[in-house]
Amino acid sequence: MLCRAACFCNQPEKFYQVFSRGRLEQLTTLCQLHPRVVTQDMLAHELPLLSQVDVIFSSWGMFPLSGQQLDRLPKLKAVFYAAGTTRYFDAPLLSRGITVVSAWRANAVSVAEFCLAQIILACKGYFRNHRDYLAPSVFIDLSTRHPAPGVYGERVALLGAGAIARALTELLEPFKLEVVSVPSRVAQRRVSLEEAFETAFVVSNHLPNRTDNVGILNGALFHRMRPGAVFINTGRGLQVNEPELIEVFSQRPDLTALLDVTKPEPPVAGSALYRLPNIQLSSHIAGALNQETQRLADCVLDEFRRWLQGEPLCHQVIK
Question: What predicted TM-score, i.e. pTM, was given to this entire model?
Answer without folding.
Answer: 0.89
